[in-house]
C-alpha cells in the first residue's frame, strides 16, 4: 500500500518531467528550408511554397515530421520562425517581383492572430507583395476574430482541403485566394471513374469559392493530365519537381514541360 501511495504521489512529477523532456527534444531540433514550385495547369510557374525540413542533431540523417515539430513549439517560437522565414524570402525578393511569383508559407490560426500584434513584422510583410499564407487549420475556429477583420486576409490560401483539418465550413466562412486540395484526398478520388467525376465536381465547386484550386500530390504524368482535365488552376507534386534547396532557385524553369 505504501509503495502504491508513493507511486501515486510521484505520477504528476513524472508526467511533468516527461513533458519537459519532450519539449527540450523539439527545441533542440534544427531547421533547413527548401522550396517546391507550384505550376499552373498551362505550365507557367505560379508560385513556390517554402518548406521546413526538421532533424535532431543526434540523428541528422533522420527527417522528422514538421507538423509534430511545430505542434510542440510555443507561440513565441513559431512567430520567431516565421520571422526567420520572412528574412530568408526577402533575400530573393528581386526575383519574385521580376517574375511575378507568389511565395507561400504555412501558418496556423493562433500564429496568424498573434502576428497582428507585431508592428515590425507587419511592416516587413507590407513590403512583400508576393507573400501568401497557407492556413494549416480552420482559422475561424482558431482565432477570436473573423478573418474579415484581419489585415491582409486577402492573401490567405486554405491548405490541405479534405485532410480533416480543412473542410466545407472553412470554405464557406471566407473566400480564400486559392484552395489547395490535399494529396490524401486527390489520391483517394483518382482511384476509379466515380471518384474522378467527384474530383471534377469538387474542383468546380471550390473554384467558385476562390480564385482557383491547387491540387497537391501530382506524382505521375497521368495525374498531371487528370488535373489539367479537371479545370484546376494549378498543381504541385513530385512529377513537377521535388523540393529543392534555395541555391537552386535561380535555375527553376519558369515553364513546366513534361518529360
Gyration radius, rounded = 21 Å
Strand residues, percent: 15-25%
DSSP helix fraction: 40-55%
What's the mean pLDDT score?
Answer: 87
Q: What is the first-to-last residue Cα distance?
A: 72 Å
Sheet of most strands: 8 strands, mixed, barrel
What is the general shape?
globular
Q: Can you give a write-up of this model?
A:
- The chain is of the alpha/beta class.
- The protein contains eleven helices and ten strands.
- The chain has helices at 2-28, 66-72, 75-90, 93-98, 109-115, 119-126, 139-142, 168-173, 183-189, 193-208, 221-230, and strands at residues 30-40, 45-56, 59-64, 102-107, 131-135, 156-161, 178-181, 213-216, 234-236, 244-245.
- It has an eight-stranded mixed β-barrel with strand order 1-2-4-5-6-7-8-9, surrounded by six helices.
- Strand 1 and strand 2 form a beta hairpin.
- The model has no long low-confidence stretch (mean pLDDT 87).
Short structural summary:
The protein is α/β, with parallel strands linked by helices and 259 residues long. It has helices spanning 2-28, 66-72, 75-90, 93-98, 109-115, 119-126, 139-142, 168-173, 183-189, 193-208, 221-230; strands at 30-40, 45-56, 59-64, 102-107, 131-135, 156-161, 178-181, 213-216, 234-236, 244-245.
Summary tags:
alpha/beta; eight-stranded mixed barrel; about 25% strand; globular
Amino acid at each position: 500500500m505504501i509503495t502504491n501511495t508513493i507511486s501515486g504521489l510521484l505520477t504528476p512529477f513524472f508526467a511533468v518531467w516527461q513533458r519537459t523532456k519532450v519539449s527540450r527534444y523539439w527545441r533542440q531540433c534544427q531547421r533547413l528550408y527548401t522550396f517546391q514550385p507550384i505550376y499552373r495547369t498551362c505550365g507557367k510557374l505560379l508560385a513556390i511554397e517554402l518548406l521546413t525540413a526538421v532533424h535532431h542533431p543526434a540523428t541528422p540523417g533522420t527527417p522528422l515530421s514538421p507538423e509534430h515539430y511545430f505542434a510542440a513549439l510555443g507561440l513565441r517560437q513559431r512567430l520567431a520562425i516565421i520571422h526567420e522565414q520572412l528574412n530568408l524570402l526577402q533575400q530573393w525578393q528581386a526575383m519574385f517581383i521580376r517574375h511575378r511569383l507568389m511565395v507561400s508559407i504555412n501558418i496556423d490560426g493562433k500564429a496568424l492572430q498573434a502576428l497582428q500584434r507585431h508592428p515590425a513584422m507587419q511592416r516587413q510583410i507590407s513590403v512583400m507583395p508576393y507573400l501568401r499564407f497557407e492556413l494549416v487549420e480552420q482559422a475561424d475556429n482558431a482565432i477570436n476574430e473573423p478573418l474579415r477583420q484581419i489585415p491582409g486576409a486577402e492573401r490567405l490560401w486554405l491548405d490541405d482541403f479534405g485532410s480533416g483539418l480543412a473542410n466545407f465550413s472553412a470554405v464557406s466562412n471566407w473566400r480564400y485566394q486559392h484552395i489547395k486540395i490535399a494529396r490524401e484526398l486527390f489520391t483517394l478520388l483518382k482511384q476509379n471513374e466515380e471518384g474522378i467525376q467527384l474530383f471534377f465536381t469538387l474542383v468546380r465547386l471550390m473554384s467558385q469559392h476562390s480564385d482557383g484550386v491547387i491540387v497537391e500530390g501530382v506524382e505521375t504524368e497521368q495525374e498531371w493530365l487528370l488535373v489539367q482535365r479537371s479545370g484546376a488552376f494549378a498543381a504541385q507534386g513530385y512529377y513537377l519537381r521535388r523540393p529543392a534547396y534555395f541555391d537552386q532557385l535561380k535555375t527553376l524553369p519558369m515553364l513546366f514541360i513534361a518529360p
